[in-house]
Request: fold
Amino acid sequence: MKARFILALSLGLNFGLLGWLGLQLNHRSKPPPDPVFKAVTRIVSPAGPEHPMPPAVSAPVRRPEFRWSQIESADYPAYIANLRAIGAPEKTIRDIILADVEKLYQSRLEASRQTNNGQFWQTVEQREKTRRELNRRERELSREKRALIKTLLGLDYDQAALEAWWDERDFGLGLSFLPESKPVEVIATLNRFGEEDNEIDDRAGGILTPEDVASKKSIFNQVLAELGQQLTPAELEEAELRLAGAMLFGFGGEFGGEQPAELKLTGTELRELIRLKWQWDSPLDEELEWPDDAFEHKRRRGQEQVETSVRKLLGDDRFAAFLLHEDSEFQPIHELAERQNLSNSVALQAYQIMKATTDEITRVRRDRTLSASTRRAQMEEIRQSAKQALRQTLGESALTDYLEQDPARWVVTPVKR
Reply:
């Protein structure tokens, strides 16, 4: 109430002063009248001492209203220039442009899917052709999108790689040790390899030739070379170990997951285990090598090398726990050993006999240089030899128990004459 009273008083005095000045200007040519002295009563606020009159306040200047449409543009270089002009940080510009480009190309992909949507009356072959055409268009748009992002922002990754880094647990486990920008670059490189690999599959129509497999291996080697440029040798080795651990095992200390309690692997043991598997028995070999006799021989030797080295690394008891996780064929032998109170060493010896016997029977069965009767005779001889070896290893009681189990039928199945 007091403030309003003072403001009214101030305005009244100011208007009175302006009126007096105007009067003086209008009558400045007239002689001044005789001075008249009047008593002036000073008005004081009843609330306290007098206050000086506040200065006149000018009306605020209204700034033009800001609209995002003044910044946004369908012309991406202009859009980026506008964002920089208002002082947007480069990271913010990156996030805005990547999301906008992703939205643009996602709409184009959706339009392509609508155009190439298979109809219910199409044959299986026609639908497969439609699927391959849609995959081709998706790869085409993805490459076009990456080229645009490279031109606009100088980046080698897109929104898809960013989202994979944010969301995918396996990538987080495998690449979290890298500096900030490198994980996304690695993911983008792996995504490009996946696109090119899928292109070979589509072109082959599901039936790969040795040339197709060689092309896959060539692309993979190119990816390794590119990763070698993005990462230091130490970073590349660490990334390979971590990603291989996620691929090879569903457990693994610093690599995530829960390992079997019986293993109790140290970090050093886990790394060595992964290195051995990746070196001698990599799952990529089945994708990047032609499955001829030479490959099968190499793979068997590799598996033997892994088992020998891992058994030496872990000892019999922990190696048995490892095999339970790795090879379902070991489970019947392990259960037999528990029922018959046999040691893990005996179970492992029986397992080796079983594996060697299976490999030998497979080799003879595939040997087309042998006549049918010769193949049957050799397979019977292998079975009888395996039965004798198992008797010596397990004992008669355990062998009888073993032969009653379904997984052991290959030993006693009679050969038809």
